[in-house]
Write a structure and sequence with these properties.
The complex is a heterodimer.
Chain A lengths: L7 H28 L4 H10 L18 H14 L1 H7 L2 H11 L2 H7 L12 E3 L15 E5 L2 E12 L6 E8 L2 E8 L5 E5 L10 E11 L12 H34 L1 E2 L2 E2 L4 H29 L5 H25 L10 H10 L11
Parallel strand pairs in A: 1-4
Antiparallel strand pairs in A: 2-3, 3-7, 4-5, 6-7, 8-9
Chain B lengths: L8 H18 L3 H6 L6 H11 L15 H20 L5 H10 L2 H12 L7 E4 L15 E5 L2 E12 L1 H6 L4 E7 L9 E7 L5 E6 L10 E12 L3 E2 L17 H36 L15 H28 L5 H25 L1 H5 L5 H9 L8 H13 L8
Parallel strand pairs in B: 1-4
Antiparallel strand pairs in B: 2-3, 3-7, 4-5, 5-8, 6-7
Helix pairs in contact in B: 1-4, 4-8, 5-8, 8-9, 8-10, 8-12, 9-10, 10-12, 10-13
Amino acid sequence: MIDFEPDDEQQLIVDTVRQFAANEVRPRARECDESRKLPLDVLQQSHELGLVANSLDEAYGGGGCRSALTAALLAEELAWGDLSIALAVLSPALLALPVTDFGTPDQKRQWIPRFTGERFAPASLAAVEPDFGSDPFAPRTTATREGDGWRIEGRKCLVPWIEGGDGVVVLATTDAGPQAFVVPRDAPGLGATPEQNMGIAGLPTVELELADVRVGSDAALECDAGRNVARILQRGRVALAAAAVGVARAAFETARDYAKERHAFGGPIAAKQAIAFKLADMAIEIDGARLLAWEAAWTLDQGRDAGREASLALQQARRIALEVSDAAVQVHGGHGYIREYLPEQLLRNARGFACFEALALV
Amino acid sequence: MPISFDLTENSIAARDHYHRMAEEHMRPISRKYDDREHELPTEWVDWYWKNGRGGPPKADLSGPADGFVQVCIQAEELCWGDAALYLRMPTAALGGSAVAAAGTPEQKQRFLAPFRGDGHPVWGAMAITEPGAGSDSAAIQTTAALDGDEYVLNGTKIFVTAGEGASQHEGGFVAVWATVDRSAGRGGIKAFVVPAKTPGMRLVGVEKKHGIRASDTATLVFEDCRVPRENLLGSATVKKKGASKTGDKGFKGAMATFDASRPIVAAMAVGVGRAALDFAREELGRQGIAPRYDAPPHLLLAIERDLMEMEAELQAARLLTWRAASMMNRGRPNNLEASMAKAKAGLAVTRITQKAVEILGPAGYSKKLLVEKWMRDAKINDIYEGTQQINQLIVARRILDYPSSVLR
């Protein structure tokens, strides 16, 4: 039955994360962006709320409540607070979920408990490649069998690299097609060079050089071989779509509130149709994009292939996030261009969705 | 129940049923009645009256239903067939919505029974717009004066969808919005049911339009047109300006009709847009062009981007429409969401159909195909039942929490 109203359980999660995002995340957004340093205490608090651990297997200490739709609800709220911090908070899932979905029991035992302990443990996933024309569904990074294990060669970029992380999921192409591998961060041959990007400045990311990296046979996540890379990327697109909606909503709400406070020609600028209609369009586009993200997440939860839905959801969300954050800068006039005002940062962050893949997962 | 995108079995059966109806009975005569603008599409009207009114044959009424969402699905499928023929179906249409929203049980029985009967086809219509009052419907000039036990209507109504059918075929009716007291502004506006062939109601013409040509869009003149006072929908009490707004079923009744009808119009729009998108996608597929959903944006061809954007826009419009409709199932106020859906769908399908003509080149522009017709048909969705701008205004007032006196 068609119904888009969250039930009590879903609403409780939304309310909890919304409060956390408003009270803990948003107040740190600007400082995090300017200093390029994550607020580690916020990451620890998020871990204590169980934002990722709740979705992990009970057998390994998780909450056992896996739902792509719930993860999408959560991603929107966190990203509303701040995109860099949101991606950091959600980073454990970058390794924990692929291992859950495609790992053997041994691999799960090896990796998942570190994300359900007392301390926040970040993780990484390397999906994007720096060469122009590279397609994450067909990575140019290669993995070849070498004795008992694998040799991985290639380059990745936009890889989250938060202090304290132990492992990175690397997407590479083998003789048999694309394949996901779990690589320890201290593996010899792995070179990480810090990046500086236009946006998500608070999230440490690296360009990753994989030169003759040797891993054991147990590094490959072999369940659903041949399709696991596509499925990881689809789940990434749903998460990113939801996060983009969160960024757009932050921009819309900031612009709305500013337009009601800012007076010109004897009244609030929000009472002028030129501004009011822009705000109306922003609200409409955000709601439409959110429903597409929810539909893609719901499709995943039904156990169905969501390639088309995930792609369309991200495409729509990335477009409207850019348009809405640009409109928010415009509504702020000259102030919109000044870094003390939130829309400036939102516009830089929103543009990133054009090249993001699997920076978060549902 | 958690968030769900699952259509019920009943909705799926309805979708398939109306899709077949669209394919078998609408598409084959689509071009014919676009060309013969003011001719009654008798084969469609008669077939629908005899066979189409019953709804899907296998509907299991004991099973869960999508309610208003199912109504939207029906509108989408039939407008995928032909939006103009959909508007020309013998139904109570918006006149029926007005009676349903503001009428008493007795009025509902009296005015709506012919639509369920075995007689000849009948139409209902709603007449609000005037030469000097479109979006600003509070400015209407048509008057209704009480004279004994009758109201006497005087004025001119334009752009009355199905106005010819509703005014000229015995058994039908036009719901006419008129003011009983101009000094009272909105509070003086009431709706009156004027049965077909009532003396004093005169059909003076039907419009020649850009699209939806098989739909009759009438001008009706009322000259001392008398209806019994029992034909007033809602309360006769006139709320003066500044008075409490409660219980005012006149103007608010009309506006409540829009909250129910806008999702349906949005669904109709989605149907027209889907017709063009389906066609473009199939045609390009034959040329070996299909969107690569997996590819990152920088690797997509312009044509793939166009198709994917059309798909995403159409689905966003459809989901906003279903949201507004499903809120009605829950009895939630949906004024904001109905306007969002209508604004999004009207503009999205205008662009989608225009893009389809472009993508298909000269074939798209040619009358050999229906694509050019769908583009012309689509545009009305951005205009009627509240223009794009009126719906933006409604959305803006809601999100800003501004009354109409602040955001005009």
